[in-house]
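User: My instructor asked us to take a sequence, write out its structure as tokens, and then describe one feature of it. I'm not sure where to start. Here is the sequence I was given:
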Amino acid sequence: MKSSKHIAVICNYELKPERIGGMDRFFIAYDQACKERGYEVDWFFSHSEDHSFYKNLKVFASEGISAEDIFLEYSKEAKLYDIVITHFVALCTPFFQKLKNEQEAYIIAVDHNPRPINGFPIKKKLRNRLKGLLYAKYIDCFVGVSKYTINCILEDYGSHLKRKTALVYNGVKASLYEERKSENFGKMIVASHLRESKGIQDLLDAVNLLPEENKVYLKIDIYGEGPMQMELERKVELYDLENQITFKGSSSELPNLLQEYSFLLQPTYMECFSLSILESLAANVPVITTPVGGNPEIIKEEENGFIFKSGDIQTLSAVINKVLEKRNRIDEKVNLLIKEQFSLERMVEEHIKLLPCT
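Assistant: Let's start with the prediction itself. The structure tokens for your sequence are:
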């Protein structure tokens, strides 16, 4: 029998205790907010490891199986849910048709997916439009995490979806982040998955171009893991940058560590709306990044960071060099914006408002 106020949240996301970040904190806070309002919530993830941080979540996960398939396997015996919410799931696929037919639920699809910097090829664009015509009708509410994402949803799947598309910015819990109070001259941080689209290879090329007399002042710690790690480590060795670059692996301690740095470096080619940027600003650490995705919606040149074109290694090197020569400076606090507009509490509240009355 179908329970009233029963929510399923389907996330192609891995719960890992060594990587507790903004989305993990959102899941916990959202679960609590739903329960306080009388909802029962089941969470379906593509991977989960036991950890006390997630102890209050009712989690279903299985290694090597998508969150969608885990959900369909669990729910095939009965219609259980009034509301189904997806995160990190491809939009407008046959899955949503099957979901609507089997569950008869109100479906909310949250789009976290970045797009290529030059857009999709024409064939992909045509396929997306066709998918929009075929499957968008099975999604009751599309959610974009930035204005950029909203525009992408409408461009990909059709402008007719505007009436059922909502904007909810990502947010972070500002109080968790120790505030940078000293200059931390020359110390910079990267917090990123190590894949090609994140542009870390460009950063290493840019550092290699720095004048030797300035390069000696630079220390960059790279937090994260990914398929490019060995290639990046080889490039560090090739350029003889061992004194400048250190790979730190994944860490759940970034809220305490960010305060030790002067800048976050994010040379990315693809972004939706970066939680790493929000976390850095929450710690009063300005950002050097690219104008992709929703980045320009939060980073303002010379106010809370510096922006350069993706792939422009010469300009990135020049920006870093000016920081080392103290010609690029940001002396004002950069964390007030997070507290006022991009808080975790506001993010949770806005997502709760999307729930229909049941």
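For the description part of your assignment, you could build on this observation: Residues 32 and 86 are 18 Å apart (CA to CA). Try explaining in your own words what that tells you about the chain.
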